[in-house]
Amino acid sequence: MTDFYSGFWGVYIAVIVIASLIWLAYLLKSQTVLKLKKGETAEVLHHKWDEDLQEFNNPLPAWWVGLFILTIVFAVGYLIFYPGLVVFGNVWNWTSTGQYQKEVAKADDKYGPLYNKFINLPIPEVAKSAEARDMGKRLFGTYCIQCHGVDARGAKGFPNLTDADWLYGGEPAKIEKTIAAGRHGAMPAFGAAFGEEKIKDVANFVIKLSGRPHNELRAARGEATFKQVCAACHTPAGTGNQDVGAPNLTDKIWLYGGSEATIIETVTNGRNNVMPAWKEFLGDGKVHVLAGYVYSLSHSETK
Question: For 246, which of 66, 202, 228, 292 is 20 to 30 Å away at the CA?
Fold first, then answer.
């Protein structure tokens, strides 16, 4: 991929564009040599179709030649004022990024105050505001439903935001931090270190932690491995650690699924999940309103 960021490609494109314009100008010039004097008849070429359809060697129409010249002039002007030839820049110093930034700044000036008026209001109070919730719902519908779903109940690998189970904490400040700065949750792979049998033992102990039917012999063997290795993140009791995003294994809420096969897959291959950071893109005001809406989803008094 780095080859496509080389300065060579800018020169390559510039040479092709300039050569093409020169060739088009030459082609037009070569095809406008023929002139007919007033009253003179055009030569009949030796092309004949059917019985009586022939081709005359007429000059190109003046209006067509004029339009062709205008297209070349327009192309040259465009390349001067806009960055069609990347290596040479442009008179207006225009860039698509610059235009985007101007449009964003204009939109922020217009719509920013609508969100910023809630920025000093505590998130629980934002969650109680019908206006703020409606605004947050629209933000959620634009940026969040792709992963968390339209109903915010999540999917495999994407948390349900409507319950009381939180990987990094459901306090207002933590929700806002998650949205603003993003999260990167990683579960290391233990397949090579544990081996197949030991992984099955650990999986059965994890199932036991959540109070479900399991192989007692395997669970007994897996407990020692869990407390030696897995407890560092999930705690010896398996209740998880929100500081590092290690899920609680004692309940029946599973991010990737709680079947024996899925748990074995998780322990064997690990998991790697990313929640993108939205502060730079959305700004503080929108993040605050969005956090209020997410907070409202799991608090019945504001639903």
Answer: 292
